[in-house]
Amino acid sequence: MSPDDCKRLVAAIVEFLENELKRDGVTPDMAESIDVARQCLYMAYATTPEDVPSTQKKLIDIFVEACPAPPPAKELNDEEKAVAEKFKQEGNGHMREERYEEAISCYDKAIAVDSCNAVYYCNRAAAHTGRQKFDLSLRDCKKALEIDPQYSKAYSRMGLTYSKMEIYDEAIKCYEKALELDPNNEGYKKNMEIAQEKQKTQAPAGMPGMPSGMPGMPPGMGGIGNFLNNPMFMNMAKQVMENPQMQQMAMNLMGGLGGPPPGSDAGSSSQSVESGSGEAAANAAQPPQFSDIMQMGQQFAQQISETNPELVEQLRQQVQNSNTSNNTDSSDQPQS
């Protein structure tokens, strides 16, 4: 693409964004974000809508012509609706027995027959949550809300998923939205209270972007507090940290935090910096990288798993049982 063509394209995008700012239905938050995008493009490319040739089609017209809207979903007859419902009921039966893979297969078949039923997506989200496929669960909840924005159970199920991921601020937002749509639902209220309490007791992250769980541990294991409160885990962790390789990694990590590694001689460290090269001194002062912390966490988790896989599985079950007991409302069950 030539520079002139690139500039015309960006100018057309800026023109589209400016028209969006005038469109009815644009919220103040949307308008602010659109204006930021418009200004960024203007600053990066030094172009304005005036750079769009008068003979050029509007960007939105080009898009609609090249990508026409999909045809509306056909109206299902009673027989087709009955087939979809049969698949859904079979999926619900599998869910009661915690056969999540089979349930997902049934909900897939229901969606293949009726792709515009929000309940089918929401029920499949519950099955994905049972498999700890939280990203797929959130995707199905959002699809259900695209179909029916007033579907309170989809918001509640999204809240449950975020709670299992220990992202309590997002969980609370979802429960609040669910309660806006169904103010008298006691289950939604109870689950929001649980999320609020857990948010208060959740340990703050050590650094931005640090996951709340143990780095390298399998999904569904919860936050680090679940481990620190378990005597068997702490005893096993002590044994692992007696491994010379893990000790060396810990010493290197502590050295990067600005002080001498544990067990080292501060005097000799100072002497080595003075006699060493400037590059070595600079490297010694570098703070640890997040990748270093993650690597240590992953190796630690691997050794824990290899040392006592039975205990790791036991901890996983304890955390899952705790999560299950804390989710008290019927929204964690598929809708009939």
Question: Can you give me a brief rundown of this structure?
Answer:
The chain has 336 residues and is an all-alpha fold. The chain is 68% helix and 0% strand. It folds into three domains: 3-66, Single alpha-helices involved in coiled-coils or other helix-helix interfaces; 78-202, Alpha Horseshoe (Serine Threonine Protein Phosphatase 5, Tetratricopeptide repeat), CATH 1.25.40; 211-259 and 286-336, no CATH class.
Structural description of this entry:
This protein has 336 residues and is an all-alpha fold. The chain has helices at residues 3-21, 28-45, 59-66, 78-96, 100-113, 118-130, 134-147, 152-164, 168-181, 186-201, 224-228, 231-241, 244-256, 266-275, 278-284, 290-307, 309-326. It has three domains: 3-66, Single alpha-helices involved in coiled-coils or other helix-helix interfaces, CATH 1.20.5; 78-202, Tetratricopeptide repeat domain (Serine Threonine Protein Phosphatase 5, Tetratricopeptide repeat, Alpha Horseshoe), CATH 1.25.40; 211-259 and 286-336, no CATH class. α6 packs antiparallel against α7 (134-147). The relative contact order is 0.08.
